[in-house]
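Exercise: predict the fold of this chain.
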Amino acid sequence: EHEITSAHKNIDRIWVTKQDGSEAQTVSEVINAIQSADMVVMGPGSLYTSILPNLMIPQIGKAVARTKAKVVYISNIMTQFGETSSFSDADHVMAIHRNVGEPIIDYVLTNTAQVDENRVDFDVYDEISHQVAVDKKAVDALGVIQVADDFLSMHDGGAFHNGEKIVDKLLDILNEK
């Protein structure tokens, strides 16, 4: 992750292979868990180095695309150098859909509270650049339901998700008919 961040280049696509260059595989228990889930939650995390590598294992991406579960992506609070420097919440969703090869996200959770950058220690969190923009129009155009709210927790010199608020929204989504 550090090498990607420090390269200061945009990522077009990613892929995952085994060390011998052959296609990565997963175990059937993972696919069964995705297929039997009520909700699949992705994020928060580095889009290209944490979220997408899992989906690039062909059986996993296909299982998420085919599941009847509600698929939720938790958009990051802040963008990351070398990964998502100028990304909005919609750009995150588009990158996932583009790399998987089809739309898979049903909901995106997006923080709307303003990050006080004076309280962010950019020396400690040197991989972040600025707050992820909210782009409801673009999210709507993707056919994804945007759940925008104050999910912000400022502490330890950084901008983080408020876990309790995230869980409350996930439960609300899960209980929707």
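Check your answer against the key: The mean pLDDT is 89.
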